[in-house]
Design goal:
- The protein is built from two helices and five strands.
- The protein has about 90 residues and is an alpha+beta fold.
- It has one domain.
- It has a five-stranded antiparallel β-sheet with strand order 1-5-4-3-2.
- A hairpin with an 8-residue loop joins strand 2 and strand 3.
- The protein is globular, with a radius of gyration of 13 Å.
- It starts with 7 loop residues before the first helix and ends with a strand.
- The model has no long low-confidence stretch (mean pLDDT about 90).
């Protein structure tokens, strides 16, 4: 999904149906880190976190945990931050 598409209600519908999504995160998302997973720096992973949203509306529309992953690639000048409901 495109990073401009942040619809937490739609994300929760996808999760409730048993499917996974990956989208680029916006920089202004208000969240709290619950857990940091071991990172695979050789694969370009800067951090891998389980998060929950602080914003009332986002937390209401997506009440589950989500994963936030920061990735660095030699082929792309900026770091990429992804959100996914795949907690594994």
């Amino acid at each position: 999904m495109d990073k401009a598409y942040i619809d937490f209600e739609q994300f929760y519908n996808i999760t409730q149906r048993g499917a996974f999504f990956v989208t680029r995160a916006r920089t202004d998302i208000n969240y709290r880190r619950l857990y940091s997973h071991p990172k695979e720096q050789a694969a370009g992973i800067i951090y891998d976190q389980t998060i929950r949203f602080n914003n009332y509306r986002a937390n209401r529309d997506y009440p589950d945990k989500m994963r936030r992953i920061k990735f660095r690639s030699e082929d792309y000048p900026d770091d990429l931050i992804f959100l996914t409901n795949n907690l594994n």
